[in-house]
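We emphasize that the prediction below concerns an isolated chain of 181 residues; any contacts that depend on oligomerization or on bound cofactors are therefore not represented. The input was used exactly as deposited, without trimming of termini.
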Amino acid sequence: KRVDPFADVRTQTLRHRAQHGCGTYPFEDGAILGVIAAAVAPARVLELGCALGYTSLWFAHGAKQAQVDTIELDSEHVRLARENFAAFGVADRVSVHQGEFAKVLPTLGPGYDLAFFDGFAPTADYLRAFERLVRPRGVLISSNLHFRDADTRACRDLLFEGGGWLTAAIADGDTAMSVRL
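Result of the prediction step, given as a token string:
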């Protein structure tokens, strides 16, 4: 049986979603993110969609030397995530940038080794931002690919057929892992 050291944060996120009425969901399998982070051994990780910090904790756990930049719009989520990072002793390695993805991304410098999209619906615009921010041979994990809107379809097409990424579906097909070519 696998032990999740951040199970309380996952439970807190589910409870918060029910009470707050928001769309925050913890990623289904945080451990896979920690394993990917350990394999990639990133110096820098970028995450879009922090919620209460569950996945950021897994990235920090898997890549013990990495600096994690995570973006979250909701001020209550930012506060709770920062509390969780402090409680787990990683507040010095995880920076929460509060704001809209489209406004925060242009302020970040390139050279990320690992990136994770777990915002609502991925778009081609976000993928173009990742092309600027993720180094060649860097890894992108994209979630929420099941949405049927035109923006998500365009993003999916670019990931799987656009030539800029080597991509494979993982987990239940809702998530993909890509290497920037």
